[in-house]
Each structure stands twice: as C-alpha cells, then as structure tokens.
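Need a sequence for this fold. Nothing fancy.
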C-alpha cells in the first residue's frame, strides 16, 4: 500500500513542478510518444497520481487485493490521463496556440489605421490566428485611413508591404 502512496506523492510533486516551472520532462516523454501528440508529461503524471491515489484508497478503505486495487488505479488513471491529454492537446493545437511568425501575415486582409504616404510608413491592423496585430506598412501609392489592404510581403521586423484591396462600395449592383 505504501508504494501506491509514494507513486501518487512523487507524481503529484512532479505535476505541480511541471505546471509551475515548465515541462522539464517533456523531452523524455516525446521520445516515448506513440500517440501522435496526445502523450505528454502532464498526461503521464496525471495517470500516475490518479493510479496511486485510487489504488491506495481502495486498499485503505476496502478489503480488495493489491491486484484489484491496482487495476482500479489503472482504470481511473487511464480516464484522468485521457482527459488531461485531450485538454492539453486542445490547448496546444487551438487557433491561438500557434506561434505567429511574419510569414503568417502574407496574404492576410488588413485595414489601414494610419494613412500610408507614397514614400513613407503607415500602420495597418489585422487579425491572425485570433490575435489582433498592428504593423507598420508601406505601399506603392498613398492609401488613406480605413482602406482595405492585403499584405503581400515582409519588409523587415514589424514592417510589411501592402496592396489596396478593391472596396465592395465600388462594386456595381
């Protein structure tokens, strides 16, 4: 019975450290991952903590054998581990989980927020992966505030080149 409580205690301690300090065990778990990204140190530690707690509680409060208590711990750990895996995966592959790079701006629609002179910089606003971003922008010709534009290239850190996007108010009905 003591071994189950030790497994639970060590797993809980490591889980708290993983959540607060960072995922320092992830490289080890990545080497063992055969699930396509569902296995993480959070999943493994959640499984182990639940296994130890449920197995220990079953042994302490009932007259079941060590085998039955261990099987109960494995079943409960699998449920909790699967839930932790689903939650972790949802958070890491969600639309805002992507680390935005300058290449993500190319092809995106934007709005001019500070007019762009023909020989200088203005500012645009766009939404990429659910995150609103303001960037300095250049264009081949002047563009007034409120113009719709499309980002065509990156000119440097935080600076893009844009072209005017045809306005729907100019379309004929």
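Here you go.
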């Amino acid at each position: 019975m003591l071994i189950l409580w030790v497994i639970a205690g060590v797993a809980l301690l490591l889980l708290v450290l993983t959540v607060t300090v960072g995922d320092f065990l992830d490289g080890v778990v990545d080497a063992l991952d055969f699930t396509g990204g569902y296995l993480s140190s959070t999943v493994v530690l959640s499984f182990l903590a639940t296994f130890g707690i449920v197995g220990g509680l079953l042994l302490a409060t009932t007259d079941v054998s060590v085998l039955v208590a261990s099987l109960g711990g494995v079943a409960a750990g699998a449920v909790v581990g699967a839930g932790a895996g689903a939650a972790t995966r949802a958070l890491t592959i969600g639309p805002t989980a992507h680390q935005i790079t300058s290449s993500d701006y190319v092809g995106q629609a934007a709005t001019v927020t500070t007019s762009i002179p023909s020989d200088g910089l203005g500012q645009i606003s766009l939404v990429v992966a659910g995150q609103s971003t303001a960037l300095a922008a250049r264009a081949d010709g002047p563009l007034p505030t409120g113009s719709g534009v499309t980002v065509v290239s990156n000119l440097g850190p935080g600076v893009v080149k844009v072209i005017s996007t045809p306005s729907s108010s100019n379309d004929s009905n």
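For context: The longest strand covers residues 148-156.
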